[in-house]
Every structure is written in C-alpha cells, then in structure tokens.
Amino acid sequence: MKRIDGQPVANSATSIRLTITERDIKDGAPLNPNACAIALAAQRHIEGVTAARAHLGCIYLMIRGKWRRFHTSGALSREIVAFDRGGKFYPGEYDLLPVPAHTLIKRARKPSSTPRRRGPPRRRKPHYTEGVRSTAHSNEEARRS
Fold first, then answer.
1. Domain annotation covers residue 30
2. Is residue 12 in some structural domain?
C-alpha cells in the first residue's frame, strides 16, 4: 500500500471538480508538486483539504486527516506540463477523477499456446516528458533507497 509521510493512501471513489483561479496560478510554483497552482487551488477551494501534491498521473489530497489519491485528467495533465515548462496555465474548472479500477486489479497471465520467442525481449524505449516535475512513483523509489 502506498504511504505518504507514514500514512496510508486510499483511492478515491468519486470525482471532484476543482476551480483554478488566476490567483492560484500567480502564487503557484512550477516543478513543485506541493506548491503548484493545483495544490494551492485544492487547499483553498475544497472543504477539508489541508495538504495536496499534484503529479502528472495522480493527485494526492489530505482530506480531513486522510490521504486520498485521484487520477489526473488529460486536460489537467497538459496544463501541468505547460506550467512546468514556463508556459501559461489557463484558469478554469478541471476534474480530479477517481482512480480507474483496472489499474488497481492485478490480473494473472493466461498461459500462452504459442511458442515463446527466443532472445532478449523487444521493448520500446519509454518516453519521458522532459522539463516537468518528477512523478509520484519516482519520489517513492527515492525514499526507499
């Protein structure tokens, strides 16, 4: 189970509509998941939120003393990339989505009837978006070391 500062993180079952204002954008800090425009807007506009961490794939909110994980919508994720790269973050209403169920379920692989290919596997090199904040997963790995 994922933990932040020793506290467990629960997955959200509902979505939240977040209004990001010019003030949130002006006060926000690029490349900082704890003090970006999204985190400031969540703390200011959502009742019961005392802390927030906004990453490209997920957003963590401490609501009434408990951490909750939300999925970052596509529009919000594009705004994060633009904001971190020095561009404009446009104010408006954005959705924090519940974590999709298919990402939470670990499925067993079915045995394959076709023979396996010999030799090293051919995997595409993953693409990493440059010039943006680190992912929540990379922060977790750094703490384990």
1. yes
2. yes
Residues 83-125 pLDDT 10s: 999 999 999 999 999 988 776 677 666 776 666 677 777 788 8
pTM for this entry:
0.77
Residue 16: closest CA among 57, 51, 45, 55: 45
Q: What's the rounded Cα separation, in Å, for the pair 92 and 66? A: 27
Q: Can you tell me whether residue 16 is helix, strand or coil? A: strand
Residue 57's SS3 state is coil
Show the DSSP H helices in 10-127 as ranges. 22-27, 37-45, 74-84
Domains held by the chain: number: 1
Q: Is residue 83 part of a domain?
A: yes
Tokens of 37: 């425009």
Instruction: Let me know if residue 96 belongs to a domain.
Output: yes
Domain around 33: 8-100
